[in-house]
Amino acid sequence: MHREFHVTRTAISNPGVKRGREGVTVSKATSREAAWDSPGAECLCAVSKAECFVHSNSLRNLSQTPPARPLWPARETEKHCTEHSLRCTRETQLNASAKSSVIRSVRLTLLPLQEVPSNTFRDLHNVATIEISQSDSIRIFRARAFHSLHSLSELLIRNIRNLESIEKGAFSDLPKLKHLSICNTGLRQFPDLSAISSLEPFFYLEVGDNIEIDTIPPNAFQGMTEEETYMDLVRNGFKDVQRYAFNGTKMSKLILKGNKNLRKIHDEAFEGAAGPSLLDVSLTALRSLPALGLQQVTVLTARSTKGLKTLPPLESLLNLQEAHLTYPSHCCAFHTWRRKQRENAFLGSFGNLSRLCSSSAPQEFGYPSASGGLYPDYALYDLDFQYLNLELCVSDAPIRCTPEPDAFNPCEDLLGYAYLRAATWAIAVSAVLGNLAVLAVLLTSRHKLTVSRFLMCNLAFADLCMGVYLLLIAAVDQHSRRQYYNHATDWQTGGGCGAAGFLTVFASELSVYTLAVVTLERWHTITHALRRDRKLRLRHVAALMAGGWGFSLLAALLPVLGVSSYGKVSICLPMDIETPAAQAYVVGVLLLNAAAFLAVCVCYGRIYASVRNPHLATRRSDAKMAKRMAVLIFTDFLCMAPISFFAISAALRMPLITVSHSKILLILFYPINALCNPFLYTIFTRAFRQELRLLLRRCGGCGAPRRLPRLLGQGPRHTGPCRKPSSLRFYAYHIKMQGCILNKGPK
């Protein structure tokens, strides 16, 4: 009958009989002595400050030969211990000196040992399992503590929080060891495993919850075993894995899950190792995976690894079949990569692989035929001829990858289409240059700041912000072209996308608000032209614009504060409507823009009514100017109409177009105002050309180019103010509507 010895420190109030199916438990009793029995054995356990030993006549059956000199002598009480004793010191250390084929398992729990000396278990030649656990006092395992235990297959060291060191060579010559567990200890260095020399065909190494171990050193596992190994290295304090750490191993699985401080695995960490086929780095702080040594990985798991925003070169994952990642964009990398690899490998010799593998392809290939002669179809075997490898035509099974890309983040570049990329650059550069020119002229003018100048400055600044947003989007698209999946997470979750989103929402809302104020101001000026007491002063308009700036800043800031989000889509617009607050925010902003459009419609309706009033002696040029300005405003809002329509439908969870198609609207229509406004409102006016000419005159070395007025389309030379209106009724009307908004006004 096999026997298993359990030695614990469990206090019992009534010492009595304890039985087990396979062994006997020795407990430290609250009384001085506790008697227990088992079939065929009468043992006495005496515990005091000076001694602890177990003695029984029946232990003769456990060992037929006297043990060697005990490594843990009973000191002054050694005379009480016979050759058949299990001895321990006053700290209840145990020396299992019995040597028998019936002892297969030894479990030591809750014993206050100070150390485990060398050759502790040397006489247990047939023991298969040793477990030392739940001790609060063991601090060190000496060298050769587990030496030459040729039958040992399982060694468990667990829940010893004060264990600080395992000396080099503590595990040595263990040819049958197949499971080593070192968990929840206070070790400060990775244990030395180089002398284990296991010959088992499969080895399971478990090193977990050792929060003081901060690195895996080079050659940490070399000499442990040459056979297949499953390494479960979870929830440790690892900060990095050094080069050649896994040298000399043959790994089937490597689990690094839960090492929250693990930030780096050196590129050469897997040099000299075979495998692993499964790599799990979930719940770590890794920022990148090694570029070398992952060729044999078939399953990659990196769930909840927020810092891993880029993948290694896909060529380093040649055999990958399954990936469980953190970000959906990473799965885009595997969609067409394997097919492209085959095409690139074959392209130099045969051209288009898709055409070669089509149904009509076979007739184009074969052996070269002899020309003429009696056997026209005889094949010429040319040693230099390259033949099609038909395996290239076999479709590989797609790589299973989770989480899959969603509708908001399709597998494409940031801007998606080539023509959209070109249009973005053109619009962005034109908008930035045009609005910078407007601001430069208006802010450097020596003329008095009027209401119109003030409004144009606000409009130009808003449109300039929109141009900067487009430049930022275009630059990121150029940088991440064809590899956006590797930049998507870093871009959309970083500060860059947040800044871009803030700029575009602020610019859009400020531009819409300013256009509405411009229209209201012109309507008020025309309607109350004869009422000087009703004239809008600069301080009135400044107060209105202060409110517009406050509203625009608040609208742009809310997604940053968590109401909706700029990181939902690649172009950094607040499309997140997952929460009721986010949905209300998006719908509210769109409805306010629609309300501004309706206000403009009403105001221009009133302006038309005034212009077409038969009782007013309205000049033809005045009517033409009013119509021109109306066309400008309506053009601006008509550009936004499709965006508002599709955006509101999407906000109400009834999307009518995909995100890929919406980029066309958002890039070509959404920022078109930023491009058109500076030209239509300012640059194309006669007053602006006059201001620009005066500015160039003041520039040192610039002179006053005589051809500038002609180049800018200016007609006859005219440096004075526009002609005065014929009546007081049309005084303000002429100032506001006939392109003279940049002059000082009549003298």
From TrEMBL:
Region annotated Disordered, chain positions: 1-25
Keywords carried by this UniProt record: Cell membrane, Disulfide bond, G-protein coupled receptor, Leucine-rich repeat, Membrane, Receptor, Repeat, Transducer, Transmembrane, Transmembrane helix
Coiled coil (residue ranges): none
GO terms for cellular component: basolateral plasma membrane
GO biological process: adenylate cyclase-activating G protein-coupled receptor signaling pathway; hormone-mediated signaling pathway; male gonad development; ovarian follicle development; ovulation cycle process; phospholipase C-activating G protein-coupled receptor signaling pathway
Residue spans crossing the bilayer: 422-443, 455-476, 499-520, 541-562, 582-609, 630-652, 664-688
Entry membrane topology: Multi-pass membrane protein
Localization in the cell: Basolateral cell membrane; Cell membrane
UniProt record similarity statement: Belongs to the G-protein coupled receptor 1 family. FSH/LSH/TSH subfamily.
Protein function: Receptor for the thyroid-stimulating hormone (TSH) or thyrotropin. Also acts as a receptor for the heterodimeric glycoprotein hormone (GPHA2:GPHB5) or thyrostimulin. The activity of this receptor is mediated by G proteins which activate adenylate cyclase. Plays a central role in controlling thyroid cell metabolism.
Listed name of the protein: Thyrotropin receptor
Species this protein is from: Conger conger (Conger eel)
Gene: TSHR
